[in-house]
Amino acid sequence: MTYLLALDQGTSSSRSMVFDESGAIVAVAQREFPQIFPQPGWIEHDPMEIWRSQIDTCREVLAKAGLRARDLGALGITNQRETTVVWDRATGEPVYNAIVWQDRRTEALCEDLRARGLAGAIHAKTGLVLDPYFSGTKLRWILDAVPGARARAMRGELAFGTIDTWLAWQMTGGRLHVSDVTNASRTMLWNLHEGCWDAQLLDWLGIPASLLPSVHPSSHVYGETDADVLGSPVIIGGIAGDQQAALFGQTCFTPGMAKNTYGTGCFLLLNTGEQCAQSQHGLISTAACQVGTQPAYALEGSVFIGGAVVQWLRDGLGAIGHAGEAEGLAASVPDSGGVVFVPSFTGLGAPYWVPSAKGAILGLSRGSTVGHIARAALEAIAFQSAALLGAMTRDAQAPITELRVDGGACANNLLLQFQADLLGIPVVRPQVIETTALGAACLAGLAIGQYRGVEELASHWRADRTFLPTIGRDQAASLMQQWEVAVRRFTGSGEG
Q1: Is residue 449 within 8 Å of residue 306, measured between CB atoms?
Q2: What is d(CA 276, CA 287) in angstroms, rounded to the nearest whole number?
Q3: 3-class SS at 363?
Q4: The predicted structure's pLDDT at residue 493
Q5: CA distances (Å), origin 478, targets 214, 281, 474, 483
Q6: Nearest of 322, 309, 279, 313 to residue 297 by alpha carbon
Q7: 309: alpha, beta or left, given left = phi > 0 and alpha = psi -120 to 50?
Q8: Among 21, 16, 15, which residue's Cα sits nearest to residue 3?
Q9: Rounded to an integer, what distance in angstroms lies between the CA atom of residue 259 and that of residue 405?
């Protein structure tokens, strides 16, 4: 049997998984790594720590599976997107910490670009909303803030990459400076329609082209790892940003199919096929996983704080000892008791886009308990996702008939039932909820010819449980209205 290795480099941990040919998980290894908060709104990672934790999990998972590197057909990389690293080409040393996708330090730079009247043109070229979320302004900040960085970049001494690029560089001793279309499409430097780095965007942001990696389809034989990394060379056959990888792992291969990943944030993606749909309702257009030469696209809505609200219940409020206790605490009350939690700790993402928003808990009474707050926290994840799906339906001008779900928080049955109730459509959890890693493995397997095509992959997908709506549409609409009122009251914004 040929096995596939997936490197799943996330926001709070690095994981590695081994899959067999049918897509079943053979072994998993995971390591958390520190989050760095230099000041409010700033979030960083140590790139070397990302690399060490990732390669340690690779070696650990092979040992757990009783395999050696030579037993692997290929490996795939999937990663937290937008997070930005700049390093020295000669030494491989980062010039600064990785600036994380959640980081808001470049809001002033974004405002300057808006004032220059560039927001519309940037959106038209990239499909993205002008926001600190994306890599371009983070890269500009590093070049401006790190002494000597811009001069070194101009001399061709530095390299830029999102985390996929950084890992591929490390695994090949600097031989590969590569990325795929999904990650490139998140930088705000990639022309989504022409499929290339855009000279005008680079000029507007003051970014030398010499920094940039070469870009390939998501399923592609990029090269081989150095032999000393895992014990023998392994083909790197797949690279995709985590959310596009999850869309692929959920086998949402047909236009109109959608998935929502409940991780640190929530990310709802709708396959739009060969059509690059432009949102009129606060969503972004993005590249979907590309297999072969034909581009593929998706509409995406991003919730900045999804499962992270459960971490806040644990670490900030001290309401629970571990994340798994959130469901029980929320279930200890029949409803939220009128409490509405707007968890905009790092601004509000789609479809609202209020970068300056802070979190708020509204509707507290003398009878409110920590159970009501926990319930409202879980419901907030579903409310934000429902707002996204509403916007997506309006953009697609076609009904979405089911939502496939994955990610750590989708183990929470209460959350998924409330999600189905709000949406009025089936919410389907697959047997393998690690669909991000699965997507990366499948992309790698396709690249080496292990699978005949996407149809074969679709035949492997299995549902675990389907959550059906249990409340009427009027009640669901009333609940959504309460949420939108809370958002508008607190931010002066609101969609729909």
Answers
A1: no
A2: 8
A3: coil
A4: 55
A5: 49, 21, 6, 9
A6: 279
A7: alpha
A8: 21
A9: 5
Q: Are strands 3-9 and 13-19 parallel, antiparallel or unpaired?
A: antiparallel
* pLDDT over 60 (residue 302): yes
Alpha helices, DSSP H only, in 162-218? 163-171, 181-184, 199-205
pLDDT tens profile 309-360 = 888 888 887 777 877 778 887 878 888 888 888 888 777 777 877 777 788 8
Give yes or no for a cis peptide into 94 (omega within 30° of 0).
no
How far apart are the C-alpha atoms of 38 and 346, rounded to whole Å? Answer: 15
Domain ranges of the chain: 3-243
In the numeric block, the tokens 């998993």 are attached to 28
Q: What is the pLDDT of residues 135-152, one digit of tens each?
A: 999 999 999 999 999 999
Q: Decide: 125 and 201 in contact? Cβ < 8 Å.
A: yes
Once rounded to an integer, what is the mean pLDDT over residues 168-189?
A: 97
Which of the 8 DSSP states describes residue 425? S
> Using CA atoms, how far apart are residues 15 and 53, in angstroms rounded to an integer?
8
Hey, what are 341's tokens? Answer: 């939690």
pLDDT value of residue 496: 44
List the CATH code of the domain at 3-243.
Answer: 3.30.420.40
pTM: 0.88
